[in-house]
Specification:
The complex is a heterodimer of chains A (708) and B (190).
Chain A: E1 3-9, H1 10-39, H2 52-84, H3 91-114, H4 127-149, H5 158-177, E2 180-184, E3 187-190, H6 194-229, H7 236-250, H8 265-276, H9 279-292, H10 297-302, H11 304-326, H12 329-335, H13 339-368, H14 376-409, H15 430-460, E4 466-472, H16 486-490, H17 494-518, H18 534-545, H19 560-566, H20 606-614, H21 616-619, H22 641-650, H23 659-679, H24 690-698
Antiparallel strand pairs in A: 1-4, 2-3
Chain B: H1 8-11, E1 14-20, E2 23-26, H2 32-52, H3 60-79, H4 92-105, H5 107-110, E3 127-128, H6 134-143, H7 159-172, E4 186-187
Antiparallel strand pairs in B: 1-2, 3-4
Helix pairs in contact in B: 4-7, 6-7
Classes of the chains: A mainly alpha (708), B mainly alpha (190).
Chain lengths: 708, 190
């Protein structure tokens, strides 16, 4: 048997660890900041790049793609080399991957704050960055698969199955959801519109949770948990069943983000049932993690690494039970658009991803630096701060969700909404919002302690960049075992396994996306619905740019409490020209779908919008909306009109031939009408200011199909 | 795994040849309760698809129609009898209740004292854009005024509430608050 000596690349692991720690702090600070803005709107500072609509996506992107992303890569680059008994395929690819990913993060932060966004949650980045992400992701996959192919072991371990599924699925999700038509540098429109765009977005959005926050972290768990506990994995069979079931079922469940919306009923139903069927495959992961610790519970009590991991896996179990419950339509009718979802995702984010990352790092850094952890006591303090932080974060938000939704749904004895002014329902929430901030601070302080503890550990330890090891080459051990079951055979064929995973995730995708796009009856057309005017299109872009959909929905559900409050419920045919759809997912402010229906309670006159954008509290003393004074100063990009019109026409919006040449004339006429109207209230403003376009857009919303 | 004291009788048989960087795997079956959960959710799903998705199943639009019908039967009798409320209320208790409603919903555009601002007109003088009688005030609040900032409150305020707030507004006439907006509309004399 030929034994080969080679070196593990620990340096790249160290890089990813450092990035994970850095972005953890940045992402948590951003989170604290947006939480503070919810309690103290003055912290929006009246500036565009510090207002909530811009900062909130920075927080979500920093946590998901920067913190968890680098956490994934830390785990993969460390465990893959050891599980394959091979160095990473290419040091150059490793470096390109590392620096490329960090570049994406920096570009993301800068462009999001500057207002370059597609408006699609967790896919906000504009097209040049989308292309860069695709390239770097391919480099990651290439490096990973090439390493697997040159491995010195026959069978690939369950962690690697999860890594492969992650790579394949994220690639598919990212590419399909980023199919967009660039109209200028840093501005694009998605090829899908309205209902289809919503379905594709939440197919992506949900599976970003599944294949970015879940499957790679299950792979991480399968490596680091048995390692840290020094116990064998509870059940190999369970690994197989829950892995395949999980990836097959997960991909279908995206529509549960769109229950009671204008999405066709059959697609909603699929979202419901596949979410419910996810309980068992998800709990399979939890069970295999927790049951691996049988006989090791003594060490769990002492070892902070295991403590973090146990809470992480438990949080995963809680989240994956809660998720399916929230996917039941009657539950969802109550919780959707509320703080419940915010609490839910933080159980997953802070508990599952955060704690599993922390557990991994507390185990990994002493290993890499050949020394004991600087302070176990400090790690224990971190554990308790973090655990309390999660509770203080989530429990108040569950309470606020229940309180606010009950108020929104309450009728008086006469059948009128008890709290017709939307922000009345916020009046009781501030203690909960303050408590949430305390939760965030506890969690943050814990993370800072960890960074300090780990830096101290690294300082006293000695890092081995090139870890010498040896293993028998694969060729020399090629004595085929006589009889292996089918899955054992598959584990020797990583490419085949990856392709099988691809087929499985494509089934649900194709089944949901293709009919929604091709079968006409799914989106009944409404002849009175007309394309946006040039001024309204600009207004829409301004709405997107300022992140309005982070707080405002444009989707009235067919529920009496909503139709009473906002007006006629939304129909699929209303959104056929909406590239992108802007239905939103959380109502921190009221729904705007009927903002253009004159005489409805959603309708506000131009002068109201004008005063409100300047100072929301003037029109609505209880409002927590930040001011948007720059809308009164910035000019509409008239030179961009032609490109926008041409782009929309290419996407199927029926603007007449050559309309782009004269579009600005129509724009100016429409703008002048608004200027004249404002003048009646003694307001003088130029017709080319952004506020004018935004008012025009507000007055278009929902106006095409309803009178009142 | 370099774990010599692992008790296979207690925790399960270690699978031969399953060793990855020191991690071993056990030959345990799936926990029965997990299979059980899956079967239940699967049965639920089939039933759900049959009940809510096949042609003829209840749609969310059907549900809404049902909810709306129930709503209408429950509230219709009390909802639409405006005539009974077209009466000015002069007692202090009513005016105070009207003031509460005014403070909640009206001050943004008409000012805390009815003095008016950039958005809404002065409510304390004798000039009215849409008529100054109690009935006119009541109806403008109820139905709003198209293409102006005045929205229709009839869907949000009960007839009683509109009566109260109209009565409060009547009580503002001639109060001459500071910063009052210039007169708009026609002179109205009672």
């Amino acid at each position: 048997m030929e034994t080969q000596t080679f070196f593990y690349d620990n340096k790249i692991v160290k890089y990813f660890i450092n990035a994970t720690l850095l972005w953890a702090i940045v992402g948590l600070v951003a989170g604290l900041f947006v939480a503070l803005q919810m309690s103290f709107p003055a912290l929006n500072f009246g500036l565009d790049f510090t207002s909530f609509g811009r900062t909130r996506p920075v927080h979500t992107n920093a946590i998901i793609f920067a913190f968890v992303g680098n956490g994934i890569f830390t785990a993969v680059y460390y465990s893959l080399q050891r599980l394959c008994k091979a160095r990473m395929y290419s040091d150059l690819l490793s470096k390109l991957h590392f620096w490329g990913w960090q570049l994406i993060i920096v570009l993301a932060a800068v462009t999001l704050l500057a207002g370059y966004t597609t408006g699609k949650e967790y896919a906000e980045l504009e097209w040049p960055i989308d292309i860069l992400i695709a390239l770097i992701w391919v480099i990651f996959g290439w490096n990973m698969i090439a390493t697997i192919l040159k491995r010195r072991v026959q069978h690939i371990y369950v962690s690697i199955w999860f890594y492969l599924a992650t790579f394949i699925t994220v690639a598919v999700l990212h590419i399909v959801n980023s199919l967009e038509l660039p109209v200028s540098f840093m501005k694009s429109y998605p090829v899908f519109a309205g209902v289809q765009d919503a379905l594709v977005q939440w197919w992506y959005g949900h599976n970003a949770v599944a294949f970015f926050l879940t499957t790679p972290y299950l792979g991480l768990m399968y490596y680091f948990l048995p390692k840290a506990a020094n116990r064998p994995v509870y059940s190999y069979r369970l690994s197989i069943v829950h892995f395949w079931a999980l990836i097959f079922i997960y991909i279908w469940s995206g529509p549960h983000h769109l229950l009671y919306t204008a999405l066709p009923g059959w697609a909603q139903s699929l979202g419901v049932v596949f979410s419910v069927m996810l309980i068992a495959p998800s709990w399979g992961g939890m069970a295999n993690g927790l049951l691996t610790l049988r006989g090791a519970w003594d060490s769990v009590r002492k070892d902070p690494v295991l403590k973090f991991m146990v809470v992480a896996v438990t949080a995963y179990g809680m989240s994956t039970f809660e998720g399916p419950m929230l996917s039941l339509k009657n539950v969802n009718a109550f919780t959707h658009y509320s703080d419940w979802n915010i609490a839910h995702v933080h159980i997953g984010g802070l508990g599952w991803n955060g704690f599993l990352t922390f557990g991994m790092l507390y185990w990994l850094i002493p290993k890499l630096y050949n020394i004991k952890l600087y302070s176990v006591k400090m790690a224990n303090v971190h554990f308790w701060l973090g655990t309390l932080g999660i509770l203080f974060y989530a429990v108040p938000l569950y309470a606020s969700a229940v309180l606010q939704t009950l108020m929104l749904n309450e009728f008086t004895a006469d059948g009128f909404l008890k709290y017709p002014v939307f922000f009345e329902t916020f009046s009781n929430l501030s203690p909960m919002y303050h408590a949430r901030i305390i939760g965030g601070i506890l969690y943050f302080v814990g993370a800072v302690l960890m960074v300090y503890n780990l830096i101290k550990t690294a300082k006293i330890g000695s890092f081995v960049a090139e870890e010498k090891t040896s293993a028998a080459s694969l060729q020399s051990t090629h004595e085929h075992v006589v009889k292996e079951d089918w899955h054992r055979v598959l584990e020797r064929k990583p490419v085949r396994m990856a392709l099988l995973a691809l087929v499985l995730i494509l089934i649900g995708s194709v089944f949901e996306i293709i009919p929604t796009s091709l079968i006409k009856s799914n989106i009944p057309t409404i002849s009175s619905v007309k394309p946006y005017s040039p001024l309204e299109l600009h207004g829409r872009d301004i709405y997107i740019k300022n992140g309005c959909s982070n707080c405002h929905s444009q989707m009235v559900r067919p529920l009496r409490a909503e139709t009473e409050r906002y007006g006629e419920y939304s129909k699929a045919g209303e959104f056929v020209y909406d590239h992108p759809f802007l239905w939103g997912s959380r109502r921190t402010g009221p729904d705007l779908a009927r903002g253009g229906v004159v005489g409805s309670s959603s309708y506000k006159a131009s002068v109201w919008h004008f005063e409100h954008m300047k100072n929301p509290q003037k029109m609505n003393p209880a409002s927590i909306m930040p001011p948007y004074p720059w809308l009164l100063e910035k000019d509409i990009d008239l030179e961009g009109t032609a490109a926008i019109i041409t782009g929309m026409r290419k996407l199927g919006v029926p603007y007449p031939e050559n309309y782009e040449a004269t579009a600005n004339n129509d724009l100016k006429i429409q703008a002048q009408a608004i200027v004249d109207e404002l003048k009646k209230s003694n307001i003088t403003i130029d017709g080319n200011k952004e506020i004018i376009a935004l008012i025009a857009y507000m007055h278009k919303l929902g106006a095409d199909i309803t009178t009142k | 795994m370099e774990n010599n004291n692992f008790d296979e009788n207690k925790y399960g048989k270690i699978l031969e040849g399953h060793e990855n960087d020191g991690i071993q795997e056990l030959d345990n079956r799936m926990p029965f309760w997990l299979t059980f959960i899956f079967i239940i959710t699967f049965v639920f799903s089939v039933a759900y698809l049959v009940l809510y998705t096949l042609p003829g199943a209840t749609t969310q639009e059907d549900e809404f129609a049902k909810e709306s019908a129930a709503y209408d039967t429950k509230y219709k009798s009390t909802n639409n009898s405006t005539e009974n409320f077209l009466v000015l209320l002069n007692d202090q208790a009513s005016i105070n209740s009207g003031k509460d409603i005014y403070t909640k919903s009206c001050i943004a555009c008409h000012g805390a004292l009815g003095e008016g601002n950039a958005v809404g007109p002065n409510l304390t003088d004798n000039y009215w854009i849409n008529g100054g009688s109690f009935e006119s005030i009541y109806n403008v609040i109820k139905n709003g005024k198209n293409n102006t900032a005045m929205m229709a409150w009839g869907t949000q305020m009960s007839p009683k509430d509109i009566q109260l707030v109209s009565s409060f507004i009547e009580s503002l006439k001639g109060t001459n608050p500071a910063n009052a907006k210039e007169a708009q509309g026609e002179l109205y004399q009672e």
